[in-house]
Amino acid sequence: MHHSRTESRKKFTELNHQAELEFKANPEKYKRKILFLGLLGYGIIALLFVLALGTLAGLVWLCTFGLAALIILVKTKLIFLIAPAAWLVLKSVWVKVSAPQGYELSRRDYPLLHEQVRQLSKELNTANIHRIIMVPELNAGIAQTPRLGIFGWQKNTLCLGLELLMTLSVEECKAVIAHEMGHLSASHSRFNNWVYRVRLIWHRIDSSLQQNDSIVTKPLRTFFAWYSLHFAGYSFALARFNEYEADAAAASVESKRALASALGLTEAMATAMEKQFWAQIWQQANTEEKAPSDIYEQLYAFILNYRQSLDERDLLANMNTKTSAEDTHPCLKDRLSALGFDSPIILKSDAEANAAKQFLGDNLSVLVEIYNKEWEQSVSDDWQAHHKYGKEIKAEASSIDISDISNIGLEEAHLWLNANSQFNQGELQLATLEQLQAKFPDDNALRLHLAKHLQNSNIEAAETLYVDMLDDFGCREVALGELIAISEGLQKTEALEQWRTQLEAHYDHCDKLDAKWSTIDKHDSVLAPEFDAQEVAFLQSALENQKNVKAFWIAKRELPQEITTAAYIVFIQTKGFMVNESKVVNALTETLGAKFAVFVIDKDFQHKSIIKRTKKLGMHFS
Predict the structure, then answer these.
(1) Residue 174, Cβ neighbours under 10 Å: how many?
(2) What is the C-alpha separation between 598 and 553, in angstroms, rounded?
(3) In b/e form, how buried is each residue of 22-34, taking b as 16+ CB within 10 angstroms?
(4) CA 405 to each of CA 412, 418, 450, 570: distance values in angstroms, whole numbers, following the listed order
(5) Is this structure's pTM higher than 0.70?
(6) What average pLDDT score do residues 181-202 get?
(7) Are 526 and 558 spatial neighbours (Cβ–Cβ below 8 Å)?
(8) Residues 29, 30, 35, CA angle at the centre, nearest 5°?
(9) pLDDT at 606 > cutoff 60
């Protein structure tokens, strides 16, 4: 049974709330329930393995009776049904967890870092850390990769973010590493870590099964969808407690003040990097054709300067955030309170005490250069597209005189607004926006610009404008996202639930549209297509280039109005007898796909009624 996002979220929240109450009342009883749930999942998987392997073994055994038994299995098609089904079951529940990827920080090249990790492992009584890798993010974590799939034998990897090391002092960085290693501490959280791994396994099994949409896996999909939700929801309280436990473990071997400083600093830095540094970098794409080749030198300088100029307002801004019902990590205020602090603190630190400089040493410049090149390559296409678009709209908008609204058309208004936003040319005049919106009252693009402008001065008016956009499918997601943000900021609980539910319903509807787009059903309707001369010539040429296709009919799919891209069904007639018609179908799909969204079918396709309608209403090419 499929549940909507809202139903799943409410059930998850209900299980989470129930678990928190039981955990506070009787922690040991609560853990026994989780243990039972975890073992239930393992038991189901063990049963599936036995049944699947037994089925395959049984088929092999029957075949040993001779050619007659094999002929019976083939003629009745049992072997073609049972063997793939058994293999699909085995494949679905055997989830391979890939090791995290990053730059390997070897013991030989980074001895100080490895020595600190070894010492922390000893003090916290943790499992061994087998690898330390560098990733670019402002983050750190422990990744456990089971060598034997669901049966464990973990390989532990410590992932350290370059941006994190650039941000923290050595003392703060050690506290963060101690927190991450606290998740492996035998004295603190062995059972919790097992639960964490089981949560991850069930989630991946559920995801794997949902991708195998067949009759064989339907019972498994139903069970694991239910099981994954219940295990995740019920064990959520323990996962959140595990974060407090890891903080406590870190505070037992490192300075509480250093950990508190790291927690407050990383949250403030994440906001500053997003809203100041990266926003400014992408503004450069308007005037610079190529992305910066020294991005991490620039970022490092920004981080060091921001830390020195950090004031109390930057720190307190994150103290208003409450612990989310969907996040295992408690909010900053709750974590600081558990450590004994009423407000965030930042320890004084100079550039020489920076963790990146101390732990990475002379290799820091090597790593910076590696990530410079990776970043430059990863954003190159987007950067050039951004630059080209900015150049074009700036040229087109330069001739628009916005002072005379009466002579401005809708297309010109959009162009002027986009250019103004792209080049960040100061605040738009409220009066200008209101005049444009009054002239084109039904245009949601103008309404969106006006609403965003009003959010800082008249939030109630902005809310009204966003609500007015909800009937427009193209604007609904953005409008609901802004309404959710406003309700969170104003702590309007009822409104927040209302908009969140509507956004979830919107995403559920989008899922149905995606399914409609990617599949065809025997009840689907088709229409006669309308092609211009150039398109007809393309279709005729596509047929002539397919030597195995004798003819095809193409009809337009009748899709929900929210899907604005035209799509077509193509029924092909092949030349003579074809052993592998799927190869012909794929070839024509690729050719036609250069110009049209098509769904190519052949005579063996199961929906004969669609073929009949396509031949009747479609355009014929031969």
Answers:
(1) 24
(2) 12
(3) bbeeeeeebbeeb
(4) 10, 16, 16, 48
(5) yes
(6) 70
(7) yes
(8) 95
(9) yes
For 360-378, the pLDDT digits (tens) are: 999 999 999 999 999 999 9
Contact call for residues 176 and 138 (beta carbons, < 8 A): no
Describe the crossing of helices 27-63 and 78-93 by its angle, rounded to 10 degrees. Answer: 150
What whole-number distance in Å separates Cα of residue 307 and Cα of residue 348?
9
Domains annotated on the chain, with CATH: 1-94+192-253 (no CATH), 399-517 (1.25.40), 526-621 (3.30.460.10)
Secondary structure (DSSP) of 159-200: EEEHHHHHHSBHHHHHHHHHHHHHTTBHHHHHHHHHHHHHHH
Check if the beta carbon of residue 373 is closer than 8 Å to that of residue 295.
no
Structure token pair of residue 357: 């400089």
Report the amino acid identity of residue 455: Q
What pLDDT score does 312 carry? 76
- Residue pair 23/30 in contact (Cβ under 8 Å)? The answer is yes
If you average pLDDT over each of 48-57, 112-121, 228-237, which comes out highest? 112-121
Q: How much is the average pLDDT of 411-427? A: 76
Residue among 537, 484, 528 at smallest CA distance from 616: 528
- Helices and strands per DSSP (H, E), number in the chain: 25, 9
Residue type, 469: M
Question: Which residues, at least 6 apart from 510, have a Cβ–Cβ distance to it below 8 Å?
Answer: none
Whole-angstrom distance, CA of residue 110 vs CA of residue 178: 18
DSSP category for residue 620 = E
Tell me which residue of 38, 10, 264 sits closest to 150, measured CA to CA. Answer: 38
Confidence of residue 176 (pLDDT cuts 50, 70, 90): very high
